[in-house]
Amino acid sequence: MSAVTTVQSNYLSTYAKLQSWVGEVAALTRPAEIHWCEGTPEEWVRITDTLVENGTFTRLNDEKKPNSFYCASDPTDVARVEDRTFICSVDEKDAGPTNNWMAPDDMKELMRGLYDGCMQGRTMYVIPFVMGHLESDHPMFGVEITDSAYVVASMTVMARIGKDVLDKIESTEADYVPALHSFGAPLADGQADVPWPCNDTKYIVQFPEERTIWSYGSSYGGNALLGKKCYALRIASVMGRDEGWMAEHMLILKLTNPEGVVKYIAAGFPSACGKTNLAMVEPTIPGWKVETIGDDIAWIRVGADGRLYAVNPEFGLFGVAPGTGWDTNSNAMRTIAQGNSVFTNVALTDDGDVWWEGMTDEPPAHLTDWKGNDWTPDSDQLSSHANSRFCTPIKQCPTLAPEYDDPNGVPLDAILFGGRRKTTIPLVTEARDWTHGTFMGATLSSETTAAATGAVGVVRRDPMAMLPFIGYDAGDYFGHWINMAKNNDESKFPKIFYVNWFRRDEDGGFLWPGFGENSRILKYVIDRVEGKVEAHETPIGLVPPTSSIDTDGLDVTDEQLAEALRVDADEWAAELPQINEWFEKFGDTLPAVLWTELDGLKARLGL
Ligand code: GTP
Ligand code: MN
Ligand code: MN
């Protein structure tokens, strides 16, 4: 409790554990002052005004985007840094072969060195937050400490934060995930600040046993908004393993057919592979309606009736900007049009609005690009970074389903996995059962995107779209998937499908138009759940004949659709050694039933 009293703070918590942690962090990082966030509209104004004064934010034209801000990051701090992300379990083995690991004590010593005095000359913000509903049976609390006002503004949009959350943490002396963030840029007396402070040294660290997060050096969303990937996926996946539930990188949507029958679907696609798009898709088939529940993260629990119920723990949308336009995702456009949003690394128009590639067919004649340079349609560079993002309140989404507010979530009828593959993976394949679906998820592959630093377009395994987010040994995580069905009534569980919107023809064009037309696949999925249409057994699972897919008014020939659905024996023969090599990484933590699935697949392919 000692050090905090030496720094000016707007609040002292009555909850000794919380107050002493805040005091310890202040003693280590030595901020000029401490500000506990209340999440009020007045605080938002103060924080965003501060960011405008510092040159971090540019206020957008109120008539175009009310109460909204443009922001450009340091050009080196634009995405998640997977090679700097660590799972520091006590035992190295528990991090598994897909995570970086360091012994917790070594990591803490190293990072204490980095945190030492790192907030000098700055305000240390304390953000009480809850992932999921404050009214749920067991609210999932966190407290983020950060020196970044950008993080405060973004967390205000992305999570439920503030005084009511703090009151409940204090009055119930609740457990919370302590999440420490610093961009690592202390300010000496009189030193001029920069618009986007950050540090070349970056660490994004999860301590799974302690359920603690330490992040340093970056203010990019996935690295710095610690309620999101770090807590709601990495730490929560560990909690789920221990407590019998699941934290997944999945959208959640509500689908209503023309007769008014409602179904719920969750879908796990890797970063920048179409979750936000599908979550608010406008169906092209008449009479069908899609409503949004979540676009990135699903927490899935077994309900009293034995079904799997999914909630979206987030409060905002942090969506990929490029490719979001009135033609592709009009509901996202309607959401941001209401304002109250932060746009990072997009381009600024001359009349104080934002623009990015794919927003409109015709780019404006002149822009300021994300690096602050003049940009015209003749420029040979993109105006916006490929991983530029909009951060906007989910409550503004015109298609938000009322069930979003239900702390118990929605019962899932189907789970989709999907990746970005030019070849091999058909438009849609249905798993024979939960174990086969787990195999599909465990072997999911996708071409890398700009959402993480590193090469783009390289095929890698991304199990359940969770490769960067599994907080423990991925082999054990597959085991957890298998156990969910073993320990419950599998007959009540959703059917699992594997989709691929990204298969290409010989000329490199997409075989499937995607976007709104994906509603035809959602319809097919539900038709299968209800046993209304047929699918053929193939070596890789159940694949529809073209006649099972509603193609009324679709601008795709039967041959093209057949090509999109084709199971190509040669392509699969090339795929199998890769799956084999992938499974061998895991040694004895890989559930034996997944080897059995692979053997069965080989045999059915005659290999
Ligand atoms: P994260 O938010 O990073 O987890 O990614 P996400 O899965 O939400 O990705 P998002 O929906 O933002 O999609 C990103 C990219 O996928 C954009 O470039 C879209 O244009 C493209 N995309 C989305 N759906 C489709 C589709 O059906 N077909 C094609 N060809 N591209 C699509
Ligand atoms: Mn994501
Ligand atoms: Mn998204």
UniProtKB/TrEMBL annotation:
NCBIfam families the UniProt entry points to: PRK04210.1
Family, per entry: Belongs to the phosphoenolpyruvate carboxykinase [GTP] family.
Known cofactor(s): Mn(2+)
Pathway membership: Carbohydrate biosynthesis; gluconeogenesis
GO terms under biological process: cellular response to glucose stimulus; gluconeogenesis; glycerol biosynthetic process from pyruvate; oxaloacetate metabolic process; propionate catabolic process; response to lipid; response to starvation
Annotated positions binding Mn(2+): 229, 249, 296
Compartment(s) of residence: Cytoplasm
Annotated cofactor note: Binds 1 Mn(2+) ion per subunit.
Phosphoenolpyruvate carboxykinase C-terminal P-loop domain location: 245-604
Origin superkingdom: Bacteria
Sorted UniProt keywords: Cytoplasm, Decarboxylase, Gluconeogenesis, GTP-binding, Lyase, Manganese, Metal-binding, Nucleotide-binding
Recorded GO CC terms: cytosol
Record flagged with keyword Lyase: yes
Residues where substrate binds: 80, 220-222, 271, 387-389
Active site: 273
Catalytic activity, as annotated: oxaloacetate + GTP = phosphoenolpyruvate + GDP + CO2
Protein name per UniProt: Phosphoenolpyruvate carboxykinase [GTP]
Function: Catalyzes the conversion of oxaloacetate (OAA) to phosphoenolpyruvate (PEP), the rate-limiting step in the metabolic pathway that produces glucose from lactate and other precursors derived from the citric acid cycle.
EC number, as in UniProt: 4.1.1.32
